Structure formats: structure tokens, C-alpha cells
């Protein structure tokens, strides 16, 4: 083994043959204790909710500890094939070539990768989990306002996040003082004039549900364009400037599907 910083290389193979590569994949996919990368020429097929084929080409493979599979191309950021929550990974030799099959039973999905010529197989352990926070996204703002709607107005308490109504959905559904219902639309960036009209549809849908109760509609955004306040006023809607919110509470890492400690 070789350790560099927080990365420990467990095994490395250069130009492995089919038998050697299959044994390598079995060894490390059974343990579920490391990240596996294989680079070389391969063919990939997928069957499940759709069907796809990747002809012979350079296809870097990434296998994560939870069984997630990603097959990349030499260019671009998107995967050509990927599969999450893989239930079974198997590697064997067929017609002199190493074959890896990743199966997901709940959707009856199968990714089959045939390694025609492997240049590198690498297994390494990442010894330190990284935290991830995406600041400023609309879901993040929705979550922060759901936990603490006070930046919108005093006395609010959240009833539901992303409430479905006839016209679509309301980002935040709350109730305020004097039992008035409040629908809040959240925008990460500057709100435009044409984003006011959907608020009227949301109010009408909520009003049909709550009867004679008073319904307020608020557009929460860092700022709004100049024509938007006039249109908000003519419809008796309100706006609220929301610029800085507390970061979301840290969430526990998703448990592995392969048991404790993987």
C-alpha cells in the first residue's frame, strides 16, 4: 500500500490481463472499502428503463464504495452510463475478456461492461469524508425558510414545503397572524416581472381550498426588477427581500446499501 495525504492506494495494476482484472474487481467490489477506477478500451450496454450501447472506445470506469457505477467518456462532464444503488456487482472472464455486470433489481436495470484492453486498474481508499454545502440554491433557500420563516414576516409558521395545488406548486405554504394563509414563491436570483402572474394562479388555487379565509401571496427574492412591484401592487401581492439565510443543518451521510461500515 502507498499513502499520500488522505488517499491510500490499496492496489494498482498496469495493463492487466482479463483474469487478473476480473480477480481485481471481485476482490474490491466484495470488500466495498475503496474507490475503484479502471481505464482502457471497453464496450458498454445498458438495459432497463431504456436501452443504450457504447461502442468500442476509451471508457474510464468509476466504482464507488456504495456500489454506484459511472462510465465516462474522454471528454465532457456527464457520464455516458451511470447507475446508483447498485444491488449486485459481478466480474468474470468470458471469451477471453473481462466482463463487469452491475445490476439494480428494483428497476430491473443491468449495465454490462466488456473490457477489451485495460491500461490501468486502481483501488484506493479515501480516509476522510468531505462535507458538502451548496449555498444559494432555490432548494437551499426553501429549506432555510421552511425551518425559519421569520425573514419573510413575524408570526409565520410553516404548514408545508412545496405544496401541490391545481396550478402547480407553491414553494412554501404557511400560516400567519390572524390565521391568514400565506403562499411563498422563492427565487434565488432577481425576480422578473413575468414571475408575478403565476402567483395569481397559486392564490386562486389556495383560495378554493381554504374557502373564505384570507390568503396572502409573497414573492421572496434578493431583489426584483423595476416593473415587478407595480404588478405586485395591482394584484395585492407582496414582495420580500431575502438575501442572507442560515446554512442548512448538516445531514447525515446516506447509509450504505451494503451494510454497516462500508
From TrEMBL:
Name one molecular function that GO assigns to this entry: DNA binding
Domain of life assignment = Bacteria
Write down the Gene3D superfamilies for this protein, in alphabetical order.
Answer: 2.70.180.20, 3.40.1350.10
Residue ranges constituting the Endonuclease NucS N-terminal PH-like domain according to the UniProt record? 41-128
Among Pfam families, the record links this protein to: NucS_C (PF01939), NucS_N (PF21003)
Keywords carried by this UniProt record: Cytoplasm, DNA-binding, Endonuclease, Hydrolase, Nuclease
Taking every annotated instance into account, which residue ranges of this chain make up the domain Endonuclease NucS C-terminal?
138-238
What are the TM regions of this chain, as residue ranges?
A: none
Family annotation (InterPro entries): Endonuclease_NucS, NucS_C, NucS_N, NucS_N_sf, tRNA_endonuc-like_dom_sf
The identity of this protein, by name, is Uncharacterized protein
Species of origin reads Deinococcus hopiensis KR-140
